[in-house]
């Protein structure tokens, strides 16, 4: 999931490294091998969805915890 080929733009560009790290950690948890060069054309759609869905789930949990701390 290379940031350069994606049309999505980060609201906070400084978060790029943290998001990439999260991607590799989640892939590792599910036994999915990602290529260090950033090209992952061999991934099955299901594998990519697993990684993306779990990134989203993790980010939502982080936001909920942060919002709960404000109350």
Automatic annotation (TrEMBL):
Annotated signal peptide: none
InterPro entries the UniProt entry points to: SASP_alpha/beta-type, SASP_DNA-binding, SASP_sf_alpha/beta
Gene3D superfamilies: Small, acid-soluble spore protein, alpha/beta type-like (6.10.10.80)
Function field: SASP are bound to spore DNA. They are double-stranded DNA-binding proteins that cause DNA to change to an a-like conformation. They protect the DNA backbone from chemical and enzymatic cleavage and are thus involved in dormant spore's high resistance to UV light.
Name this protein carries in UniProt: Small, acid-soluble spore protein, alpha/beta type
Natural source organism: Paenibacillus solisilvae
